[in-house]
Amino acid sequence: MTARGETSAGFGPAGNPEQAWMRHPTSSPPAAAALDADRLARVALTWIAEPGNRSVFRLVEQHGAVGALTLLREGGAPEEALRQTVTARLSAADPLAVATEAMERANRLGARLVTPADDEWPLPVADLHRLVLASSPRRVDRETAPPLCFWVRGGHSLAETLDRSVALVGARAATGYGIHVGTELAYGLAERGWTIVSGGAFGIDAAAHRGALTAGGLTVSVLACGLDRPYPMGNAALFERIADTGLLVSEWIPGADPLRPRFLIRNRVIAAATRGSVLVEAAARSGATQTMHRALAIARPAMVVPGPVTSTMSVGAHELLRQYPDARLVTSPAQVLEEVGRIGGDLAPLVRGPAQVRDQLDDESTMVLEALPRRGVRGVDDIAARSGVMARTALRKLALLEELGLVSRRGDGYALSPPPREPPTS
Predict the structure, then answer these.
(1) Quick check: 237 and 27 in contact, CB under 8 A?
(2) How confident is the model at residue 34 (pLDDT cuts 50, 70, 90)?
(3) How far apart are CA 21 and CA 36, in angstroms?
(4) Which of 277, 289, 307, 416 is the most exposed place for a label (fewest CB within 10 A)?
(5) H or E segment at 49?
(6) How far apart are CA 41 and CA 35, in angstroms?
(7) Is the pTM of this model over 0.85?
(8) How far from 137 is each of 85, 140, 177, 284, 293, CA to CA, in Å?
(9) Quick one: how far is CA 251 from the chain centroid?
(10) 268-316 per-position pLDDT tens digit
């Protein structure tokens, strides 16, 4: 499979400066051609090996994207597993042809490629350098390197949109409780100017996106497939709304299928690109908890909404709170913002019951009030003795309590005032 006009080696006509630079990386190409070559090479690399591959990322750091691609095409992969993957891919198609076709497909879709050379590149994803998930034999838990590029659909700047963002994730088979809480949290955070990031799945993800849209806020869906293959298809209308008002983001080229391992690879981006992650509901074995493990591993705030102890859809959430002391329990947008917002500027209010008149009393007034009988009248001297204060002090405090409507004078003594009557209801 080769693009029109390409040579058998896949490098294109000699007159094309971009392709000439790829053939002769030691030459001095125009800056624009070098940038285009880098972008095309990054796309080719994400097709040759799945995003997050640490060996590929290290090669790009050492040799640049163009140099890394050339090295891999010539059989210079540093490890056997990667060499086998590259060989299999090269036998199917030419990576530059695939990359060129992907760029054309993205243009027709109205999407764009974003690389680290662009102003809208989200810098926090670089923290994936230090994402190490200990004692996991799975490849998706080892291949957690930063992205090489993103495909983006939507009119907002990716970096600016993610600058004040919170990830809301959870179970696909969510309960009514989870849907309600996820929607309310997303609405409250979006209303306060925060972007809601999730994965577009059924259940909590969809509730989070819809809550943000209802509030008129921004939401970002990070996909595990091509932008033209949004999954699940049942949320196709939701994805269109997100693309119109927010952003659709993916590391995979247009046309890429939503394969199962790609969802876990995708989760590392959700954890790293946001200020913190909130888990609303999760069963004992849930992909959403993997997002939280990745957030914790790179020291991002990880927050968990508690659920009913009788619900199997909250077992994973509660277990996360038990296992990780750094995970925080949250129940409201204000508590989420206290974890991810400005230091000292986004503190959640203390949870208190309704204010009562008794809250204003000092210790002596409280003792005098407690010295009064539940029924009947008690004299001043008796009240003073029972409360342990002087009679003169008791008189002062009784006058204050009378002003507050808590006691009333009855002849030579004082009695508790009856509680105020509730107004009649129609």
Answers:
(1) no
(2) confident
(3) 10
(4) 416
(5) none
(6) 10
(7) no
(8) 19, 9, 35, 19, 15
(9) 17
(10) 999 999 999 999 999 988 888 999 999 999 999 999 999 999 999 999 9
